[in-house]
Design brief:
Elements (H helix, E strand, L loop, with lengths): L2 H26 L29 H5 L14 H22 L5 H23 L4 H17 L5 H4 L12 H8 L4 H42 L11 H14 L1 H25 L6 H4 L3 H13 L3 H9 L5
Helix pairs in contact: 1-3, 1-4, 3-4, 4-5, 4-9, 4-12, 5-8, 5-9, 7-8, 8-9, 8-10, 9-10, 10-12
The structure holds zinc ion (ZN).
Length: 316
Amino acid sequence: MDIQFLFGFFAFCLGAIVGSFLNVVVWRVPRGMSIVSPPSACPKCGHRIRPWENIPILSWVFLGGKCSSCHQPISWKYPAGEAAVGLLFWLIFQRVFSTGLPLPTALGWWWFAGAMLSLARIDYEKGVIPNLVTYSGMVAALVLAVVFPYGRPAIANPADLNLGCVLSRPLVALLLTVGPSVVATRLAAAADCLFGMLLSGMVLGSANWLGSMALQSWRRRHDKADLPAEPLGWGDVKMLAMTGAFLGADACVYLLAGGALIGFVVCLIQLGRRKATGGIWSSLPFAPFFAVPALLWVVLGNWLYLLYRLCAPIQY
Ligand SMILES: [Zn+2]
């Protein structure tokens, strides 16, 4: 069997397992519940899910989409979600493998994709961005950078525009000259991660801070109590910092633009459908919009660069 197929199959299975775990995360984290205990149970009869009833996709098929104890139907959304994450992990692996990037690159992108999917769902359903997901993502990105420095495109392939390492390139190049290469590569990878995290967090953080000042003075002058206190939540700022930690500083610039564009279009559609109200744009969650260009980035690359390549008359 060929190695790409075998690894691809492994990537799909891993994605399905992660997808199953994300179902738990999306339900429990915004409700302040532990993600490890108690073990999963049927929400209708409380029947504790046995290990063989917890195999992603397969268990649902073998159980005929019903709980083995009370025979109440289990939503098709569970296996569909698991399969979707499996497919996403498979796509990420295919990109890493086919472009010749080191395989550890997939580890960071898988973690990021899983975190981003759960944030999009939690923000859509509950309107919050849990710190547990964003902080753990930032720590994971930094640990992965130190353990697998070549898993970061800024180290493995800094000249590829499609990977977006332009902003951190001078810093990485400088640090690569410091001391023996074993230490220098890890240091440069960690610096690329921290630089992406701080810059992305600071850009959106300062925009949010300025925006909240403007909204405050607007509220005072026009006596509009229904205006939101901040244009975005601080959870969104942490989500951006996590993205910068995984994908680097460049990515955040493009993704923020992509997310804002999608958000703006959806906002216009919403305004067109209903009568315009003051609270409408504050009620729109940002994470689902941001997740679209973010997942495209890990599957395809820099969307703006690809668009340019597609439209440019001369192929380089
Ligand atoms: Zn049941």
